[in-house]
Every structure is written in structure tokens, then in C-alpha cells.
Design brief:
Oligomer: single chain
Strand content: under 5%
Order of helices and strands: HHHHHHHH
CATH class: Mainly Alpha
Number of helices: 8
Largest sheet: none
CATH topology: Four Helix Bundle (Hemerythrin (Met), subunit A)
Shape: globular
Distance between the termini: 18 Å
Helix content: over 70%
Structural class: mainly alpha
Length: about 220
């Protein structure tokens, strides 16, 4: 990761942490989602010409970009309690998340940019979804913890005593994210009396996943 990308990561995290109180003040997730999407477009500019091993943008990154646009669109459901259409949109975004990874592997399109773009879109999905579920009162404030974890982690590494580094994404982290998104879809539907408990369990799993990442970030480099 270059110094420019590292700086972008910190600035992006700070922007998202500030976007959360903005959304709560306005009682609207759309401005916060727009800030996140705009910041991700800046990431695209930083990696220009280095999107894939061949340099072009590629099919996998195109699918990830579509995911980003859908996530920003999801923020429109924060005005009133979400329902089945919002839940189906979240599930579509999750399916596309699997498709972009398969395309990257199948056509040798995997790259540093693709991995980071994918990860940041995942974080934006949880962030926007948390606001969509909290603002109309579908879930309590605990869901905001899930939405802010990624950004708090990045800023925390900045202020933590050296040596620290951002831990690579693990299979456990991917599993925790998938469970979190499924719980989000369940809460947006909502699934009777089960969705709150599911969301609490998924948030707890995500917190544990980030605790593992913090430990890995502090571990000595082999």
C-alpha cells in the first residue's frame, strides 16, 4: 500500500466517522452515503491505470462499482422503516459481492485495488444499512457499532503506538461480514421476533472479528 493510499484510507475513515453524526442530525442516511461514495471515487482516481494486472478497469471492478452505486441507493430507505424491497436489495448486493470475486479469480483480474475497493464497499454497505435500520427505529443504537467498526479500526491504528499495520482480511472476517449482511436483510424484512436477536449476535461476531484484526495488527512481522 502506497503512502497516498494509506493517507486516503485514514481520511476516508475520518470522513465516515463524521458522516454518522451528520446522518443522525439530519435524520437522513443519504448525505452520509453520498460522502462515502464520493470518497470511494477518489480511491479510483488514486489507482488510475493500476486497477487490474493489465491496467484496465475489468469486469470484476465494474461489478463492485455497481455494488457501490446500489449501496448509495439503499440509503434512500432511511426515511421510513424498511421492508422487503430493501431486504432484497441488500441480498442482491451480497450476491454481486460473490460474483465480483469469482470474476476476479476466473479471469485473473485480482489486484490490490480490487481487494481494497471490495473491502471498502463492504464497509460502506454495513455503515449505510446500520443507519437505514437505526434512523426509523427498526433496531437500537447497537447496530451503529457494526457500521462504524471498520472506520474506528483504521483511525485506531493511526493513534496506536507503533508497530501497527492493517491486518489482511481473513476468511473469518469474510464469514462475519456475510453473517452481518444476512442479519441486516432479516431486520429490513423484518423476520418476526427473530431479527433483533440475529442482529445482536451478528454484531457481536463482527466485534470479535475486528478484535482478531487488532491482535493481528499488533503481532510482530515474521
Amino acid at each position: 500500500m502506497t503512502a497516498q493510499v494509506r493517507a486516503w484510507s485514514v481520511v476516508h475513515a475520518l470522513v465516515m466517522l463524521l458522516a454518522a453524526p451528520l446522518a443522525l442530525t439530519l435524520h437522513d442516511a443519504r448525505p452520509a452515503a453520498a460522502l462515502g461514495g464520493t470518497s470511494l471515487l477518489a480511491l479510483l482516481a488514486l489507482y488510475r491505470g493500476r486497477y487490474t494486472p493489465a491496467g484496465g478497469f475489468g469486469a470484476a471492478n465494474t461489478v463492485t462499482l455497481l455494488r457501490m452505486l446500489l449501496i448509495v441507493g439503499l440509503s434512500g430507505y432511511s426515511a421510513s422503516p424498511p421492508g422487503p424491497p430493501a431486504a432484497l436489495l441488500v441480498l442482491l448486493i451480497l450476491v454481486l459481492d460473490g460474483i465480483d470475486g469469482r470474476l476476479a479469480r476466473r479471469f485473473s483480474l485480482a489486484s490490490e485495488f480490487g481487494a481494497r475497493f471490495d473491502m471498502e464497499c463492504d464497509a460502506l454497505l454495513v455503515f449505510v444499512s446500520a443507519l437505514v435500520l437505526y434512523l426509523p427505529g427498526r433496531l437500537g443504537a447497537f447496530i451503529l457499532v457494526a457500521g462504524l467498526l471498520r472506520y474506528a479500526y483504521v483511525v485506531g491504528l493511526l493513534v496506536w503506538p507503533e508497530p501497527t499495520r492493517e491486518a489482511p482480511r481473513s476468511s473469518f472476517g469474510r464469514t462475519a461480514f456475510t453473517v452481518m449482511v444476512l442479519s441486516i436483510a432479516a431486520s429490513m424484512w423484518p423476520i418476526a421476533a427473530l431479527h433483533v436477536q440475529f442482529a445482536i449476535a451478528a454484531t457481536s461476531l463482527l466485534v470479535y472479528s475486528f478484535a482478531r484484526s487488532i491482535y493481528a495488527s499488533r503481532a510482530p512481522v515474521a
